[in-house]
Amino acid sequence: MSTPREISTAAPAVVARQLWFTGENQVEVREQLLPEPAANELLVEAICSSVSAGTELLLYRGQLPQHMSLDASLTSLQHAAKYPLQYGYASVGRVARGGKNVAAEWQGKLVFAFQPHASHFAIPVDDVIPLPVELDTYDAVFLANMETAVNLVQDGGPGLGERVVVLGQGIVGLLLSSLLARHPLGALYAVESLTARRARALQVGVQQVFDPTSAAEVNALKERLSASSAGSGADLVYEVSGVPAALNLAIDLCGYHSRIVIGSWYGSKSATIALGGDAHRNRLKIITSQVSSLAPELSGRWDKARRFDLAWEMLRQVQPRKLITHRMTLDGAADLYAQLHRQSDRQGPGDIMQAIFEYPHSR
């Protein structure tokens, strides 16, 4: 009589498919066997992750500073931009299982994580954010960018009746415009060179969009901003185009004591900025805005948790999943980044608004 075999209760091994940036203009998909999650970790099966066409393109092109971490506030990105490396910071997935110290109710939960593009990942339970029950998964993947847009509004402090201009209508610019359109402004204008983005800007509530490559349109915008008898120029300008030279246009559009909020991260890119003449005499206020912290004047009443709550509510209202134009698996990554590279140089069709990677196992 044979001896009965012991039945194993061990969870099956997980092979993660990961996106790696391996050199300038080079990406590849690698497979990695993941260990069991540690005591306070979750194993998450990704459903989708969004591509940041700004920051990720800087990394793809080798235009990120080498002397600083990618993001000092995020556990997954506390390292320098040296190839090869993983990147990405907006992933939505479902908890497959947890470590021995993780409560059972985490099983099956939908969560958001500031995590590089991968089909599976292990992450400390304190580093994920549970999705609100009623929120669509493909709206939730915009959480990082919506938090940025909320932070930009808070840093700029748009006032009743003010004239506001947003330079750049990429995803952050469009989300920012969507929020500003909910304010009782005097005027809301945008500047964008890509035709598809100009059309989207009008759909989210911008009153008029101008093409920065057209001198006539730039002059028309300046005339609009100077139409009143007093206080000519924009009261508030947001620079979210990712193009350092756009700061010169921001300065040109300003009036006396106007505010410029810089939301772009230029990486190692730079440009000559004209700070003489009117820029000096107008006593401009230039604010650099970065989402990893809150403005000191808000810290008495706001913290990251409160700002996340507001970002979730704005996602419910704006429903940015309609901005997704390209969906693909990681196998399409090389072609996607090449297209984004050409689009950024105005050599492509300009039709990529928001691209996301999907992971079919979790659909």
Summarize the structure.
The protein has 363 residues and is α/β, with parallel strands linked by helices. 26% of the residues lie in helices and 25% in strands.
Highlighted features:
Rossmann fold, alpha/beta, six-stranded parallel sheet, seven-stranded mixed sheet, Quinone Oxidoreductase, Chain A, domain 1, 2 domains, 363 residues
What can you see in these coordinates?
- This protein is an alpha/beta fold and 363 residues long.
- Helices cover 26% and strands 25% of the residues.
- The chain contains ten helices and 15 strands.
- It has helices at residues 55-61, 137-140, 143-156, 171-180, 195-203, 215-225, 246-253, 278-281, 304-318, 333-344; strands spanning 14-23, 26-34, 41-50, 91-98, 110-113, 120-124, 128-130, 163-167, 187-191, 208-210, 234-239, 254-262, 285-288, 324-328, 354-358.
- The strands form three sheets. Strands 3, 4, 5, 6, 7, 14 and 15 form a seven-stranded mixed β-sheet that branches. A six-stranded parallel β-sheet has the order 10-9-8-11-12-13, with helices on both faces. A two-stranded antiparallel sheet has the order 1-2.
- The radius of gyration is 22 Å and the shape is globular.
